[in-house]
Amino acid sequence: MKRTKLITLATGLMLTFSVSVFADEKPLQITPEAQAYADKLIQLSKNDQMAVINELTNIPKKIKKDKESLAGIAEILNSNRLYQPALEIATVAYQDHPEYLPAILAMGNAFAGLGNTDEAAAKYEEAINADPSDKRAYFKFVDIYKNIAPEVALEKLNVIKEKFPDDPEINKAMGSIYYNQNKIDDAEKAYQEYFKSIPEGGDPQAQEDYGIVLFAKKNYQASLAIAEQALKHDASSLSANRLKFYNLMELAETDKAKAQAGQFFGKFDEKLYNSTDYKYAADLASQTNDPQLAVKSYEKAVKLNPKAPDLYKSLSEAYEAVNQTDSAVAAYMKYGELANPGALLNYLQAGKIYYSAAAALKDGEHDALRKHYINAGDSLFARVSEKAPDSYMGPFWRARIQTILDPNNPIESVKSQYEEAYRRMEGKDDSYDGYRKECLVYDAFYYFKKDQYAASLDACNKVLAIEPNNSLCKQIKAAIGQLRK
């Protein structure tokens, strides 16, 4: 699967990387005095974190000599995101007992919380050397490298697998890393191995993660089944509701997707929704003939992911559907800026949006708006004509959009643009004959209306050489024949 596709999926479906190897680990036992001291530090932090650092100079002697209490306090501080104080107090225990595993781990956790990956990794390696039979440091090492250096994390997981071959959590961790590396086949195999090793329904969160992997594999039916099973366990799960909605959309189960959208949107904090959610919502709105909702949904999607070119393209099409032509052009130009920066094709395609809008308005209907669309489109086509002097497309489309001003009477500027387009096609093969024919047909029409019958007949004969049964030119020739009698 292509990387771009997975990045799109990742905006909507993220694996949690939940590793529960410590479920049976007993917390460090600390004295009531140590607990009270930890509570005091947490309370001080609410007003001034520097006060916490200052307070560490006054660690009670009874606690200072108790390595277990010190490490326990450090982990309490880590769990409260007080990483610097945690590091300071864990270091006190480490200085007197450098072989004490909980102190080493507490220091590693504090470094990790502070974003100091190298120091954290060094401490976890030290913990592994201190006690190779303890899994915690291995998995903590994996945890800090899983995103920034996944190959390093996988190497460590393979080491763990050799030491602890029966631990199913290793496969779960591998599945998550493989997914984030876009190695979806490997992720699927890892999760399959994991679920073979645990009781059925024993890890609902991992089930959701596996459902995401199956979704990435385009196995939507199997992914949907997992999402529905997860919702039986927890009907309020954001990710399971999201996964069910996405799968129903991919399976084209429109009615069911609409019902699920009602269960998903508006049920969670607005900040939890992402651009992919709204992209699917917009697609659903289009399928159920609600173009206004499609516009609103695409607008939300773009706001949350302003660097995604395809969203702007879809938004442009949604604006076209509700006749917001200027907005449609602006959205398309943004798409072009992101997808093909500087390309003249962006101006050509945007001009065509104006052309379609102008052509859809009848004579005498919204004349001012119609003229605005024609002028705006002509300006874009003029830019193409100027910047690409060897291409027929600029003058060709200038002629087309100007024709809308008065399709029943000849216009000098239209004739000149068609003739310029025809000139630019000189020497090109007969695949351009369809465009040549349109240019010549207008010449035939123009000269006939101007009573210049010889020139009109010449243009008609050139058209008929390309398309022998062209009805308009046959009619013009017949009319000229009657007029000359």
Query: What is the number of helices?
Result: 27
Distance between the termini: 71 Å
Number of strands: 0
- What sequence of helices (H) and strands (E) makes up the elements? HHHHHHHHHHHHHHHHHHHHHHHHHHH
DSSP strand content = under 5%
Query: Which parts are unreliable, with pLDDT below 50 for 5 consecutive residues or more?
Result: 1-11, 18-24
Main β-sheet: number of strands, strand sense, barrel status?
none
| Shape estimate | elongated
Rg computed from alpha carbons, rounded to a whole number of angstroms? 35 Å
Integer average pLDDT:
91
Give the fraction of residues assigned to helices.
over 70%
Helix/strand/pairing category? mainly alpha
What is the strand and helix layout of this fold?
Layout: H1 3-12, H2 32-45, H3 49-55, H4 61-64, H5 67-79, H6 83-96, H7 101-113, H8 117-130, H9 136-145, H10 150-163, H11 168-180, H12 184-196, H13 204-216, H14 220-233, H15 238-250, H16 254-264, H17 275-287, H18 291-304, H19 309-321, H20 325-339, H21 344-360, H22 367-387, H23 393-403, H24 412-424, H25 433-449, H26 453-466, H27 471-483
Description:
This protein has 485 residues and is mainly alpha-helical. The protein contains 27 helices and no strands. Helix 9 packs antiparallel against helix 10, helix 14 packs antiparallel against helix 15 and helix 21 runs parallel beside helix 23. The protein is elongated and about 125 Å long. The chain starts with a helix and ends with a helix.
